[in-house]
Specification:
Layout: H1 3-10, H2 21-29, H3 38-48, E1 53-57, E2 63-66, H4 67-83, E3 91-94, H5 100-112, E4 115-118, H6 125-135, E5 139-143, E6 145-146, E7 149-150, H7 151-161, E8 167-171, E9 178-179, E10 199-204, E11 214-218, H8 219-233, E12 240-243, H9 250-254, H10 257-264, E13 267-270, H11 276-286, E14 290-293, H12 295-304, E15 317-321, H13 327-337, E16 340-347, E17 350-354, H14 361-366, E18 370-371, E19 377-381, E20 393-399, H15 411-417, E21 424-432, E22 438-443, E23 448-450, E24 453-455, H16 457-465, E25 470-480, E26 484-493, H17 502-511, E27 522-525, H18 539-546
Parallel strand pairs: 1-13, 3-4, 3-5, 5-8, 8-9, 12-13, 12-14, 14-15, 15-16, 26-27
Antiparallel strand pairs: 1-2, 6-7, 10-11, 16-17, 17-18, 19-20, 20-21, 21-22, 23-24, 25-26
This protein binds 5'-O-[(R)-(benzoyloxy)(hydroxy)phosphoryl]adenosine.
């Protein structure tokens, strides 16, 4: 790829549809798009309060970064990356756990105008290979080992197969690759950065298709979602935010997340693991005021809080989102943790809804909130695309100042995922109350929401189908008391195949190199699938047979009949 092609990749409208000029003008005129870049914002905050702590990485030994240090380190690393040929518009797959280097690398890339591609720590060879090849990534940033997995070996194999991938940078012991710590840190002299309307990074979609879609976010639009969230959540320079979920995910990054907290000049503490045994001592020691959790984790914290023996009194606000949070669980959080609850219903494609601090308690536990912006356009429509009256169920469509107009390099898919006039089809079934609050009632998209982690059944079906003994497969969601949903693979074996054990199917999926949360929780062998009237496999039929008495728990609200 030439330098000119790389820079083109940065420009909205080239690799993905962008906001039409009249919308962009409106969003600028309304003051939503402030013309800031991430690199510029960090520079300003460092000038305004150089000695405030931006970042705490508590493990294995406590390290801190002041705003000035973060700014300087980002500059020097940017110069080092540039010296190694990483330039504007280049893609860099970033797969780091919650460590300080994550933030340093991201800001170094922002300064150059290179685009981080946010892989999750759980991703494995199939996903990483795809991100590298699809984006033509020039670099891949990894830890040496994390959660018992050696990322260096995977990186070596991925590098072998991807000729564009020139660099693998490792936090820790680099082995055959380059240690991030050894990238020459030239003082100052970073190249000209990106423009506010240009792309800042590629975020991953939860996905409904065989491969994940990439979400192109600009500095202007994402920045609005940050300061808009900050206003709603009350984030300011005194906020001490615990980054519990993987830092690469949109929720802990921007709702209001560690980026929102940096925007406001507050302090982020990076939590190495989400369990109460790890997190509660940090809440106590670091005087944490705010955090964000997915519902299963919120349940565990709620159980553990009162008996933990740790002083959690600094906690003011806990945000819960990513999957449906039951009313019963929501009611228990505030008394157990001694703080306020806010529900968040968001998506990496854009739209984020929050319950508000001045909402009445019933609204907070029974709804998923209101959009950030008065210019978030919300439509709730029936199968024919007609608007339904408030209080009725329908498909949620949205358009607005921080919701993308198309995925990156996915023209065909964009025709299905967006309406002609630019509304994103979220795939969620919602109800809008008289106050405008949204209640998530289910889902029309073919996706499994496993406690906030999204699985595209088609991706796993394709893997299982490549097993020589398998004739056909269908992966569906089943109710789970703790996770909300988990995955079940119905497998039809070939007539001449030896019988298989469920564990062999799971091992097969795992060995193909995908994130472990995508390995089916359950496998059932069947002779045939229920058919729909037109002979297509009926996932609805499969789900209702999965809700048979041997399955525990009620059928979750999130599993509604397929609309398509
Ligand atoms: C967040 O982002 P994604 O991109 O991983 O997933 C988005 C999808 C939504 O379309 C919806 O199906 C589901 O996750 N979801 C919820 C929910 N929050 C997200 N379903 C029910 N109740 C909720 N509160 O998950 C995400 C991004 C930013 C902030 C929060 C969550």
């Amino acid at each position: 790829m030439t330098a000119a092609e790389s820079v083109a990749a940065l420009t909205p409208g080239v690799d993905a549809p962008t906001w039409p000029a009249e919308f962009a003008e409106r969003y600028r005129a309304a003051g939503y798009w402030r013309g800031e870049t991430f690199g510029g914002v960090l520079r300003e905050r460092a000038a305004a309060h150089p000695d405030r702590i931006a970042l705490v990485d508590p493990a294995p030994e406590r390290r801190t970064w002041t705003y000035r240090e973060l700014d300087e380190r980002a500059d020097r690393l940017a110069a080092g990356f540039a010296a190694r040929g990483i330039g504007r518009g280049d893609r860099v797959v970033l797969q780091l756990p919650n460590v300080g280097e994550f933030v340093e690398v991201v800001f170094a890339l922002f300064r150059i105008g290179a685009l981080p591609v946010y892989a999750l720590p759980a991703h494995r060879e199939t996903e990483i290979d795809y991100f590298c090849s699809f984006t033509g990534a020039v670099a891949y940033v990894i830890p040496d080992r994390h959660a018992g997995f050696d990322h260096r070996e995977l990186a070596a194999r991925v590098k072998e197969r991807n000729p564009t991938l020139r660099h693998v940078f490792v936090v820790g012991d680099a082995g055959e690759h380059t240690a991030l710590a050894e990238v020459p840190r030239e003082p100052g002299g970073t190249p000209a950065g990106p423009e506010p309307h240009e792309l800042a990074f590629l975020q991953l979609s939860g996905g409904t298709t065989g491969v994940p879609k990439l979400i192109p976010r600009t500095h202007d639009d994402y920045m609005y979602s940050l300061w808009g969230s900050n206003e709603i959540c009350g984030v300011d320079g005194d906020t001490r935010f615990l980054v519990v979920l993987p830092a690469a995910h949109n929720f802990p990054m921007s709702s209001p997340g560690w980026l929102g907290v940096l925007y406001a000049g507050g302090t982020n503490v990076l939590c190495p693991a989400p369990d109460p045994e790890t997190a509660f001592p940090l809440v106590e020691r670091e005087r944490i005021t705010m955090t964000g959790l997915v519902p299963p984790l919120a349940l565990v914290w709620t159980e553990a809080g009162p008996k933990s023996g740790h002083d959690l009194s600094s906690l003011e606000l806990v945000l819960v989102g990513g999957a449906k949070y039951s009313e019963a669980a929501a009611r228990r959080l505030e008394p157990a943790l001694g703080c306020r609850l806010m529900q968040v219903f968001g998506m990496a494609e854009g739209l984020v809804n929050y319950t508000r601090l001045d909402d009445d308690p019933v609204t907070v536990v029974t709804t998923q909130g209101l959009p950030i912006s008065p210019d978030d356009e919300i439509r709730v429509v029936d199968d024919a695309g007609q608007d339904v009256a408030d209080g009725g169920f329908g498909h949620l469509l949205t358009r607005g100042p921080y919701t993308i107009r198309g995925y990156w390099r996915a023209d065909d898919h964009n025709k299905r995922s967006f309406t002609e006039d630019g509304f994103y089809r979220t795939g969620d079934i919602v109800r809008r109350t008289a106050t405008g609050h949204l209640v998530v009632e289910g889902r029309a998209k073919d996706q499994i929401n496993r406690g906030g982690e999204k699985i595209a059944p088609e991706e796993i079906e394709n893997i299982i189908l490549s097993h020589p003994s398998v004739h056909d497969v269908s992966v569906v969601a089943v109710a789970d008391e703790y996770l909300g949903e988990r995955s079940l693979a119905y497998v039809v074996l070939r007539a001449d195949a030896e019988p298989l054990k469920p564990v062999a199917v799971k091992r097969f999926v795992r060995e193909r190199g995908v994130a472990s949360y995508k390995v089916p929780d359950l496998v059932q062998f069947v002779d045939a699938f229920p058919q729909t009237g037109v002979g297509k496999v009926s996932k609805k039929g499969l789900r209702s047979s999965a809700a048979a008495p041997e399955q525990q728990g009620p059928r979750p609200a999130a599993v509604t009949p397929e609309q398509h």
